[in-house]
Design brief:
Chain A: This is WD repeat containing, antisense to TP73. Chain B: It is found in: Cell junction, Adherens junction; Cytoplasm, Cytoskeleton, Microtubule organizing center, Centrosome, Centriolar satellite. Chain B: One of its GO terms (cellular component) is ciliary basal body. The structure holds two protein chains of two kinds. By secondary structure, chain A is mainly beta. In chain B, helix 6 packs parallel to helix 9 (about 345-380) and helix 7 runs antiparallel to helix 9. Classes of the chains: A mainly beta, B mainly alpha. Strand 11 of chain A pairs antiparallel with strand 1 (about 240-245) of chain B.
Chain lengths: ~475, ~575
């Protein structure tokens, strides 16, 4: 019962979910969702239920193993982790972390080990499904991103804190052999992240000090970068998929791009509230209530047309210069709403999307070839989340209303989710094929299928014309 | 003068004078007297003339002033004394005395001298008056001057006072400001001290905080350690894994023991990964480098080619060539020689290449400079050209404008045409546009019309001919029918035995035939011709045109009314 909309996009029916726990398997075949204490696995294409598992308690976290064979469900309150097998529904595994408590649970890249972080970050317990063995990693640091696996799944970097000093340990994931262990020159290490090629490890200090350290896989310090002092520093970090650029978003509302040869600053992107650059296209979302003549208003019609109360929206391109709405942050509060909180590169390394917290309604898209802004999407509501298509330069974003917004170099569209009663998109993620987007509401989910190749032409024409994408519910 | 002369007899003028001073009624008079006196010194004319009888003078004064006769100066009795007195006075005034001589018993005066004296005195008086007047005006003037000056003075005094006051005010202000500055400086100092204090406090707090944080962290670490220990010691029963059956590794291999060999392998793998990354990067850089070098070579070649034709012309200018050509000759060798080492990435080759590029660049620069100077030299000469260029530009703009106009015109035409096509109801424009077509059509129609007329005429003529021919044919046919009937009758009559009936029948048939002939050929109604002439009339038309006889035969033939051969033969 797919609902067909214009622009060649189809929407699935709505399913229940809780805690926004919904993941597509890495091979793209299955869709796992948690509804309270039940785990439902569906076929992505047919959306038929394949398996149904019942956990011991309400699931707090869920994750697919890398080979799409197992699903991990963590119940932090009970300190429990349950693992389910897709191939053998009878197979079961339960890990009890005991009285120490559990705050985080995740798969190792090989899909045969589970890493549990205990409360107070006392230790990381590594459980093996192969031989039931357990090993501990002591002194993990509680920070923004204390643990990261390299993209090939071979190495794990772990931030540690011992004797009031920061350390980084590099483990070989195969047998949890400690490959390297070194001290970092940081006041308070906030995070570690591998470059996509797995050869460089970026480590950054907490927001009190702007400091980015780059380590080689063998623990050598390649470079240190600090843009300024005496002010709040790094807020977000992102590697380009080619490992060529490292984008650093900071509290001074700028994104700095480091290159991978000299590790010096290539350029910096400023988020000026006044946009004067003629190369940047500003897409301003404009909401419009449908105008209906009063004589046509009959009760029957009201009953029939649910779209009567829907607000249509479309994008307009206002003439430059454009003033982007800015929210003044409260200086007395901790974690002020200022600075670049989200950065993401498109899969072809061509575009960079950023969000400045004091411009909550806008997403900026930068061209990495021209090293300048190429588009600014100004929404009517604060942007909740945005994500790049894993195959094409296409950005999907949501603002917590009933619409899905898409940007591509060709233009911008807003698509209303055609669900009765309204579906407020809180979050979203792409299917690994880039053909569909999973939209997450408060306790619902819905799949949006993108236009297929033959339909794409039509979409393109719509996009170029910046047509209003509006839907009736039939 | 006489008003104060109260004592009638004054033997001594000095005494009189004394009295005079004593009895002075007013200061002004005295002043006048003094003035008169002072002025006397100037009068030094003929003293004789001053001699005038005092009596007359007295009388004069008497007439002026209402003296009583009793108190007169001179009486009959005291003339000599008076004269003496007058003389004395005159002498005192610097005039010659009247020189009065008492002649005889009666007092007689030298009239002339007295008059002279009188005159002198009058003159003196007048002069005195004049000076007095002058002096008075002077006095007035001076008074006003004085007043003005006094006024001025007072004003200045006021001003002075004012400025003094102002000055004191300013002094006061300055003093206050000084005070303020002093207090502010004091404040500043205290603030600075405060800041320093605060900074030190902050620093101490920071150290305190750091210290505390470290302490806390250590404590928490200790706690964690302890907790860990406890956990390990307690052997948490709950801490467990329940697996239905163990699963194999994702790669299907068995897990390996941790050995030093494994460690070495891990190290090896790590370095391999790093190495491959570096190699990849190196490759990319090499490629980039090669491309850049290619570009450099290309640039150099371009430069050489750009500069080489100049060398021939440069031969005429040996002054600057000596240096450059000296440099350029080995350079050409380099250009050849550098190619091979370039690929070998030789240090030397790189240097050579850079050097040659640098040289070429310098040459290009000098060339550019020379061109610049040439341009500046030629600029004056090119003024006209510049003007011509301007004209040229003007012409171009003009042409452009014209072009635009033309295109606009064409566009409007096209538009109109389309309008006309889409809106045929617009009759005026349609008529306008139709006119051309109509005219053309009319012409064509006219031509066709004339052609048609001609054809019609021809056709008409043909028709006439044809009808004539048809009529003729009709006649001939009737004649033939008659002939045949006649012939048949004769034949029949000849064969039949009733000869008597023969004549009747023929007449009958002839009558019938004539009637038919009458209706057919519209022969004028004449009395029916005789039987013999009937055949004659039947052949009358052919006889009128004997030449048509064969045509008739032809007609017959065409009408397939082939006559009997007997007809002809007979």
């Amino acid at each position: 019962t797919d609902t067909k909309g214009c622009c060649g996009m189809n929407f699935s029916e709505v399913f229940k979910q809780s805690n926004q726990l919904c993941k597509v398997s890495p091979d793209g075949k299955y869709l796992a969702t948690c509804v309270q204490y039940r785990l439902v696995v569906r076929d992505v294409n047919t959306l038929q239920i394949l398996q149904l598992y019942t956990c011991l308690d309400q699931v707090a976290s869920m994750e697919w193993s890398s080979d799409s064979l197992f699903i991990l469900c963590a119940m932090y309150k009970r300190g429990l982790v349950q693992v389910w097998s897709l191939e053998q529904p009878d197979w079961h595994c339960k890990i009890d972390e005991g009285s120490i408590g559990l705050v985080s649970s995740r798969w190792s890249p090989d899909g045969r080990h589970i890493l549990n972080t205990t409360e107070f970050h006392l230790r990381v317990t590594v459980w093996s499904l192969c031989n039931k063995s357990v090993s501990y990693i002591k002194y993990p640091k509680a920070c923004q991103k204390g643990m990261d696996f390299s993209a090939d799944g071979r190495y794990m970097a772990l931030a540690e804190r011992r004797d009031c000093k920061d350390y980084i340990s590099v483990f070989v994931c195969d047998d949890w052999h400690l490959l390297r262990h070194f001290e970092t020159d940081t006041q308070d290490l906030a995070g570690v992240e591998w470059s996509p090629n797995g050869c460089v490890l970026a480590a950054w200090d907490s927001c009190l000090e702007y400091k980015m350290l780059l380590y080689s896989l063998d623990g050598r310090l390649l470079s240190t970068y600090s843009a300024y002092e005496w002010s709040l520093g790094i807020k977000s970090v992102a590697w380009s998929p080619s490992s060529q650029f490292l984008a650093i978003g900071s509290y001074d509302e700028k994104v700095r791009i480091l290159n991978h040869i000299t590790w010096k600053k290539l350029t910096e992107f400023e988020h000026h509230p006044t946009i004067t650059n003629s190369k940047a296209v500003v897409f301003k979302e404009v909401e419009k209530r449908p105008v209906i003549p009063t004589e046509d208003l009959s009760i029957q019609q009201i009953a029939m047309e649910s779209s009567l109360f829907d607000i249509q929206s479309k994008y307009e391109i206002p003439p430059l210069p454009v003033q982007v709405p800015v929210v003044k942050p409260d200086p007395d509060r901790a974690n002020p709403k200022i600075g670049i909180s989200a950065i993401a590169f498109s899969v072809d390394n061509r575009y960079l999307a950023t969000k400045n917290d004091c411009m909550p309604q806008s997403v900026w898209v930068w061209d990495m070839q021209r090293l300048g802004p190429t588009a600014v999407l100004e929404q009517t509501a604060p942007v909740r989340f945005f994500a790049w298509d894993p195959r094409r330069p296409r950005l999907a974003l949501c603002t917590g209303n009933t619409k899905l917004y898409l940007w591509s170099p060709a233009g911008c569209v807003s698509v209303k989710v055609p669900v009765e009663g309204g579906f407020q998109v809180q979050s979203l993620f792409w299917h690994c094929s880039g053909d569909s987007v999973v939209l997450l509401g408060k306790d619902q989910l819905c799949l949006c299928y993108m236009a297929t190749d033959e339909e794409k032409h039509m979409l393109r024409s719509h996009v170029v014309g910046l047509g209003v994408a509006c839907f009736t519910s039939h | 003068m006489g008003d104060w002369w109260t004592p009638p007899m004054m033997p001594d003028p000095g005494l009189g004078r004394f009295q005079q001073a004593a009895v002075t009624p007013g200061f002004a008079v005295l002043c006048a007297g003094i003035r008169e006196f002072s002025s006397v010194s100037h009068i030094d004319e003929s003293p004789s003339r001053h001699r005038s009888p005092p009596a007359t003078r007295a009388s004069e004064t008497n007439s002026k002033h209402s003296y009583s006769v009793l108190t007169a100066f001179c009486t009959e009795e005291n003339i000599p004394q008076c004269v003496a007195y007058v003389n004395q006075e005159a002498a005192a005034l610097g005039l010659c005395g009247v020189c009065v001589e008492a002649r005889g018993a009666g007092p007689s005066l030298g009239a002339a001298s007295a008059l002279n004296l009188l005159y002198e005195l009058l003159q003196l008086q007048r002069r005195g008056q004049r000076t007095l007047h002058d002096l008075e005006t002077q006095q007035l003037k001076n008074n006003s001057d004085l007043e003005h000056l006094q006024h001025n003075n007072s004003r200045l005094k006021d001003q002075l006072e004012h400025t003094r006051r102002e000055n004191s005010g300013l002094h006061e202000g300055e003093r206050q400001l000084q005070l303020k500055i002093r207090t502010l400086q004091r404040y500043l100092k205290s603030e600075k001290e405060e800041v320093q204090k605060l900074q030190s406090i902050i620093a101490s707090r920071a150290t305190q905080y750091n210290h505390d944080a470290k302490r806390k962290e250590r404590e928490s670490a200790k706690l964690k350690e302890r907790l860990n220990q406890l956990l390990v010691d307690k052997r948490d029963k709950r801490l467990a894994i329940e697996v239905a059956n163990c699963v194999g590794r994702a790669d299907g291999k068995r897990s390996l023991w941790k050995t030093s060999k494994m460690e070495a392998r891990h190290e090896g793998e790590m370095y391999k990964a790093l190495l491959s990354d570096y190699e990849g990067r190196h490759q990319v850089l090499l490629q980039e480098n090669a491309e850049l070098k290619k570009l450099l070579q290309l640039m150099k070649k371009d430069m050489v080619s750009m500069l080489s034709p100049r060398k021939t012309t440069r031969a005429h200018m040996p002054a600057e060539d000596s240096l450059e050509q000296a440099g350029s000759e080995p350079d050409d060798e380099l250009c050849e020689g550098s190619r091979d080492p370039l690929e070998q990435m030789c240090e030397q080759a790189r240097e050579q290449l850079a050097n040659s590029i640098r040289l070429q660049w310098r040459r290009l620069k000098s060339h550019m400079q020379r061109l610049d100077s040439q341009v500046s030299l030629a600029a004056s000469r090119e003024q006209e050209e510049v003007i011509s260029r301007r004209e040229h530009e003007e012409a171009i703009t003009h042409m452009k404008m014209e072009l635009q106009q033309c295109t606009e015109f064409i566009q409007t035409q096209q538009q109109l045409l389309q309008q006309q096509l889409s809106l045929p109801c617009d009759e005026e424009t349609a008529a306008l546009l139709n006119d051309g077509y109509l005219l053309e059509e009319k012409e064509r129609l006219k031509e066709e019309w004339s052609l048609f007329h001609e054809q019609k005429k021809n056709f008409e003529m043909e028709r006439k001919n044809f009808t004539e021919a048809a009529i003729r044919l009709g006649h001939e046919r009737k004649a033939f029918e008659e002939d045949r009937a006649l012939w048949l009758k004769t034949q029949f009559l000849n064969m039949a035995p009733f000869v008597g009936h023969r004549r009747h029948a023929t007449s009958e048939s002839r009558r019938a035939l004539t009637i038919g002939a009458q209706s057919g050929a519209k022969v004028p109604s004449s009395p029916a011709p005789s039987c013999t002439s009937a055949s004659h009339t039947g052949l009358s038309t052919p006889t009128s045109d004997p030449m048509t006889l064969p045509s008739t035969a032809e007609l017959y033939r065409t009408l397939q009314l082939i006559p009997d051969s007997r007809w002809y033969s007979s």
